[in-house]
Design brief:
This protein is mainly α. It is 65% helix and 0% strand. The chain contains six helices and no strands. Helix 3 runs parallel beside helix 6. It is found in: Nucleus.
């Protein structure tokens, strides 16, 4: 009920302002005012700036996925029983989640110059760790 009323309001606003570039049947959901676009860009820039500060006070060994996984690999090689008893394979997704999310904040799958997930450094590091783990198990 809300959506048709909202669309009717937008249609009436377009008619009153004399906008002729809208084609009936096309979505008007993408019609943003310059003010809305500016506010969105400012908000996006603030989020990106804040995301850069998240790990600025963290030691380099603990904010780089590759280095973290190397520490787990060393643990597995030196103390396999302890590693297995700690259920590390279940813990890693939760441990790496915040690091990956920070790296994905600026990723937009709809951009034309898209970096594929498989090409991202964190993905390759996890893939290498998984391959090394599978090799050691077999």
């Amino acid at each position: 009920e809300f959506i048709p009323k909202y669309r009717t309001c937008r249609r009436q606003a377009r008619q009153q302002s004399g906008e002729a570039d809208h084609h009936e049947g096309m979505s008007s959901d993408d019609e943003l005012t310059p003010t809305e676009v500016g506010e969105f860009q400012k908000s996006k820039d603030n989020v990106l700036e804040d995301s850069r500060k998240v790990f600025e006070d963290v030691h380099a060994d603990f904010c780089d996925i590759r280095k973290i996984l190397l520490k787990f690999q060393e643990w597995k090689e030196k103390f396999p029983d302890s590693y297995c008893d700690a259920y590390i394979s279940f813990c890693l997704p939760k441990l790496l989640n915040p690091l990956i999310r920070v790296q994905l904040i600026s990723w937009n799958p709809l951009e034309q110059n898209l970096t594929e997930l498989e090409e991202m450094p964190w993905f390759r590091a996890i893939e290498e760790f998984s391959d090394a783990e599978n090799d050691s198990e077999s």
